[in-house]
Every structure is written in C-alpha cells, then in structure tokens.
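Anyone up for a design puzzle?
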C-alpha cells in the first residue's frame, strides 16, 4: 500500500515545517498508477507526471500506523481518503478504513466506485461519507475527457443517495467545456438528491493531455459558486438562465461572499488545490481569509 498525505496535512501534524492553516480535514491519498485515463489528471495512466502531485498539491509518502496515531490525537475533525483507481486499490482501502477507525474521526472516501456494493462496503467499514466524482459535466464531454458513462455515474450517485441519504458527495470541475446552465442544472439535481457538491476550477497540469487548455475565468467561477450557494440554501429562484447558456442573478444577497468558501463534505477546505501561489483564489479555505478579502474589497460579482 502506498499512502500519501498532502503537505498541508503534514504541516498540521508537525511532520513537515510550513505554514499551518488550521485545517479541519486531513487529506490522505491511496496511490498507484490509475487504470483510467482522465485527460486532466496527473495520475492518469498516460500522463507523464511525478506521482507525488495530485492537481498542484504535493503529497508525501507516510506510514499508515504513524499517521493514524497522529491524526487520532490531532484537532482534525475529518479524514478524507482520495483513492486512485489502481489495480488492487479496493483491498488497500478496506485495510486503511479499518486502521483509520482507530482515529474516531469522521471519514470521507473519494473513489471512482463501480457499483452500489462497493459504496455500501465503505459505509460498512466505517466511512461517514462517500464521494463519487463526476468531475466533467455532460455525457459527451465526460466520455471524451474522463472515459466511461456520465449517465451511469449519475445513476450510481442517485441510487447511493437513496440508500445512504445525506451521506453522498460529488466533485465538479468547472472549465472542461461545459456551459454555466449545464452545471447549474446538475447542481440542482444533486441538491434535490441530498448530494453535496464540491466545486473545483480546472487547472492545467504539466504532463497531462490537457496541459495547454485554458482555465475558467475567476469571474465565471464566482457565478457558478454563487449559484451553488443559492441552490443549497434554497434560493435557486434568484438565478436567471440567459439565452446564451450563461447565468445571471436577480439580486446578489448580503451573505453572497460565503459562496466563495470551499464546498463539499463538512469541514473540507482543500487549500490552494486549484490555484498557483500569488494568483486569485478560486476556493477560499477559511472564514478568516474570506473576511480579509471582504475588507480589501477583493470579493466582486
Ligand atoms: S468534498 Fe472534500 S472531504 Fe469530501 S471527498 Fe471531496 S475532497 Fe474529500
């Protein structure tokens, strides 16, 4: 088993020196060469990247027992296991879940699950939430960029949300060629199913097929973030669908800046996951940082 932890997690646990961001979730990755070939991913079987990257974050190898004990005595509230779909990942994930039960922390598993039996097994082994990433929105784009069937993945999410209500999450990456309206419709569907949505912005990574593709503008991403926030706070009627497949808003509510906070499972913040240092942040990882940005008038719609 190759287990890695994100650098932010290692800073928090004192295993590496660096700025501590008061993370509430520890991020672990079960690593190996993926059997799938998502064109944007550093772990795809055709990508030529250093395995210690996932998106632009560095993940260092760790020992399972050591990290379990450190997390158990830490202030983390949740552990997120990102499982790469390498041959044999399922057995490693079983073992890891059993081990991490010793931490008594809530556990999220982010995995490209194949069927309901697989999803059910992770819950039986102590997962608090399971995330099945869609990443790419739309049948055609999904099969071209991620491979496989968008509708089958959607069906699995739907069935999982029926058997495990309010315990399923998904990930959506903005900027893969989809329209605003497609993302908003999908988020509405997820909300109706009680599925949480973690939004990310596409980040072209060296060594991947899409290394030269453009990123979404921060302005466009803000609109999608606000749409998600309005949908998940029961105010989707404020979203206006325009004929050119973009979206607008009847009004920007006073609490709109909360939309910029990282979304997904409770306590998930994934700092600096989809931006380079010094650039505007797509997802804001803490309330404190958001307040600073508001004071500096950096939150614009
Ligand atoms: S939303 Fe966050 S905690 Fe949940 S699976 Fe995704 S990365 Fe992990």
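Challenge accepted. My sequence:
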């Amino acid at each position: 088993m190759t287990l890695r932890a994100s650098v932010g997690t290692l800073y928090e646990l004192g295993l590496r020196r660096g700025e501590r961001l008061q993370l509430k979730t520890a991020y672990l990755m079960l690593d190996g060469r993926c059997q799938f070939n998502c064109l944007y991913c550093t772990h795809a079987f055709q990508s030529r990247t250093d395995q210690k990257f996932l998106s632009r974050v560095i993940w260092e190898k760790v020992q399972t027992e050591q990290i379990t004990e450190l997390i158990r005595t830490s202030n983390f509230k949740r552990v997120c296991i990102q499982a790469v779909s390498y041959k044999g990942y399922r057995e490693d994930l079983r073992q890891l879940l059993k081990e991490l039960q010793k931490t008594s922390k809530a556990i999220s598993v982010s995995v490209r699950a194949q069927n309901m039996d697989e999803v059910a097994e992770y819950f039986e082994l102590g997962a608090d939430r399971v995330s099945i990433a869609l990443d790419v929105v739309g049948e055609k784009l999904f099969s071209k960029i991620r491979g496989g069937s968008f509708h089958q993945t959607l069906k699995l999410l739907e069935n999982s949300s029926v058997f495990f209500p309010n315990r399923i999450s998904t990930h959506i990456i903005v900027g893969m060629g989809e329209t605003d309206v497609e993302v908003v419709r999908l988020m509405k569907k997820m909300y109706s199913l009680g599925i949480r949505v973690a939004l990310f912005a596409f980040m072209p990574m060296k060594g991947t097929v899409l290394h030269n593709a453009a990123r979404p503008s921060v302005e466009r991403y803000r609109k999608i973030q606000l749409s998600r926030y309005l949908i998940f706070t029961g105010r989707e009627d404020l979203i206006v669908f325009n004929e050119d497949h973009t979206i607008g808003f009847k009004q920007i509510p006073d609490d709109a800046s909360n939309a910029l906070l990282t979304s997904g499972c409770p306590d998930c913040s994934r700092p600096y996951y989809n931006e380079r240092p010094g650039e505007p942040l797509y997802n804001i990882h803490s309330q404190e940082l958001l307040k600073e940005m508001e004071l500096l008038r950096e939150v614009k719609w």
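A detail worth pointing out: The first helix runs from residue 7 to 13.
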